[in-house]
Design goal:
- The chain starts with a helix and ends in a 13-residue tail after the last helix.
- The relative contact order is 0.14.
- Strands 1-3-2-4-6-5-10-11-9-7-8 form an eleven-stranded mixed beta sheet, with helices on both faces.
- By secondary structure, it is of the alpha/beta class.
- Strand 10 and strand 11 (447-454) form a beta hairpin.
- It is built from 16 helices and eleven strands.
- The protein is globular and about 65 Å long.
- It has a domain at 3-254 and 398-407 and 422-477: Amidase signature (AS) domain (Amidase signature (AS) enzymes, Alpha-Beta Complex).
- It has helices spanning 3-12, 17-35, 43-58, 101-108, 151-158, 175-181, 215-225, 260-263, 270-285, 301-316, 335-346, 349-362, 368-388, 414-418, 425-430, 459-473, and strands at residues 38-41, 70-74, 112-117, 164-168, 184-187, 208-212, 255-259, 289-293, 394-398, 434-441, 447-454.
Length: 486
Amino acid sequence: MFIAELRQQLKGGEISARELIEHYLGRIESVENTLHAYLEVTAERALAEADLIDQMRAEGKPLPPLAGVPIAVKDNLCTQGIRTSCSSKMLEKFVPPYESTVTKRLWEAGAVLLGKTNLDEFAMGSSTETSAFGATSNPWDPSRVPGGSSGGSAAAVAAGECIAALGSDTGGSIRQPASFCGVVGVKPTYGRVSRWGLVAFASSLDQVGPFATNVADAAEILKVISGHDPLDSTSINASVPDYCSSLSNSVQGLRIGLIKECFEQKGLSSEVKTSVMTAANLLQSLGAELLEVSCPRFNDGIATYYVIAPSEASANLARYDGVKYGYRSEGANNLAEMTSRSRAEGFGSEVQRRILIGTYALSAGYGEAYYKKAQQVRTLIRRDFEKAFDSVDILLTPTSPTTAFSAGKHANDPLSMYLADLLTIPANLAGLPALSLPCGFDGSGLPIGVQLISNVLEESRLLNVAHQYEQAAEVMANRPKANLVP
């Protein structure tokens, strides 16, 4: 059900908010043993909020735009009075005393919180397997991963455990799981959505965005959470368009650039490449013009990212020292020992690996060689995008080189895991808006995602092209018989 349809049904009394929430809570109960998409389900709160919405309707009061819409939230966004663990033992008992800006805007718009979703620990991963509280499974095939780090949110939306969800994207953590799970995932322009209350991983890269089953719903959620926030020093002070109003615009004459370097990747699956090219050709049949463009430093993005992101993580995660809050090791003889043991016991292996990489890159004598050099390459990557947008309006690539891989496949091979984000990372480095939406299925019935990238603050155009493709392709209407979890 689309959010717009739900709004009309609630307004007309065809369905009550309580009935809707009870349906989704029932769905969660029936599939969570298989998926483990949620870390915490807030059933009592959800039903209480639904009753308030039903009361408002009964009293003839106007309903807010997202009234009754059941939402799941990635567990690295602070929710006042509700545990926010980042899927880490370090924050296992942390209950925030304040609400993140994005979730506050959702609740003010009438959305209902169903619960907090699983993620890779501190959002560091591409499979949701590094969670301290167990991995999440892919709804299309539980033996495979849902992607990461926002795998819980993507899986919850795909499996019908909520209408929409929030995730965070530092190097592809919304788009890659959206591709693996066959849903729409949007990473907005850096600064378009507030990061206040998002537990930081890499502050110059992190961005919050929505998951939904369709572009129109993603546009509705994005409109609510976007906008300037004085609490976030990186927030852009620019007006927010009505993203839904431009979804039906024609793509006639639009110039779509196919990034040459993305289609020449050594590890790109032939099925993925064929499906993505079919999507590009469909847009061409709708009147768009296809052009090949080059971003010569595109493939340097992953090396650049794995210097910058761990460096920022090393600084951001230094606050978890066992002193002020978070996990504290017992029995230490002095402060230094207590801090060392708390971090060794509280952080998982992947988080420790990235902290060590970042600390090394920032250490005396190496900052110039690694961190500064990575920032210079980042500038070159951004300039490549700027040059590409001189000749095209939208860029099109595969979202991921492959479809969802088997659980445990890359558990002992971090480099192979990092390569899962090869095609998504450059948009983060450049601060550009990008999204993934389904464009087909592989021979095993697993979803394939196509990535669209637009220029800064051009989310309206991005969503418009995605919506026009979605309406013409009807990918989910033609999905294979191998269906989602029952």
